Amino acid sequence: MSLIIEPNFREPGKRYFRDFSPGDDFYQLLIDTHRGLSEEQSAMVNAKLILILSNHIGDISMLREAMQMARADVESS
What we know:
By secondary structure, this protein is mainly alpha-helical. The chain has helices spanning 21-34, 39-57, 60-71.
């Protein structure tokens, strides 16, 4: 199985009238999660979120592929 890289956001039982609306809902949730936090607190929330979702996925090969995609085109200092 390979990573889904096309928009794949949805909420069971909720009807959307535009394809991008679920992605907008997710983005708003992410912004709200970080609202009022310092940079350090925000980084900690991101780290915890990555670990929680990685555990949920559980497939190491899938996580490896995701990490490679995330790292691609990012310069190392």
